[in-house]
Give the backbone structure.
Amino acid sequence: MDTISLEPDVQAAAPMRTAGRPWYLTGAVWQRVLAAGSVLLAWWLLSQTFADGVVPSPLVTAERLWHIVQNEDFFSTVALTLGRVAAGMVVAVVAAVVLGIAMGRSRRIELFLDMFILVGRSIPGLVWALVAVMVVGLNNAAPVVAVFLTATPLVVLQIWESTKALDPELFNMAKVFGVGPVERLRRVLLPALVPSIVAGTKLGLALAWQVVVLSELFGLGAGVGYEINESFSNFDIAGVLAWTISFAAIMAVIEYGVIGQVQRYLVRWRPKTSAS
């Protein structure tokens, strides 16, 4: 009599049990909680190593952060810095899409611009922040220019490489069906480049907020960078950490929440696989 093995059924049931768990009971969540706990523990041990409160503990920083959030100027300050980041990134992404597609589709344009893109992405954002403040002046345009100069080469590089990697048969097939250049751009090229545009935007955004904060720190009269500079001037390390953590957390929510949702909406036309 043949023996029937139950092992495949058990293996098949395991993913179902995992998929049926609430999100807060999944292994990925607990791994992230463990990672955050490790960082907090290391931070606490470091604060105990130095005397006289040179390194504030996580609890002291959290109390300082709570005091800052309760201040009525907190949200207006964050909104001002976010507005500067958003303005710079919008200009950078629009320019990067145009330049990246042009470089990916035209060999002449690629040879003309590739040196500028490769050199531009190697220049630190700190330099662009200094140059923007010195040339443009102490106004709202300075951080926008600094973000544009810092983020554009990174986003262009992503779109440029992805455009070159696209299958030419997609465009040939579109031509056979009589699709015009504008429709090919709107229905073939741009949808295929959405992941690259989003990935480049995330890379640029990671530097953009740092560049804006640096621009504000160098002399602008308001913003998160200005508040960090004020805390630094008063040797308020807890204040420096609190402002930095608060804005970094907001940018993380925007990157993983808002941009992630936008990406899923833009690629909603793609068929879902069993893995997803």
In short: The chain has one domain: 58-266.
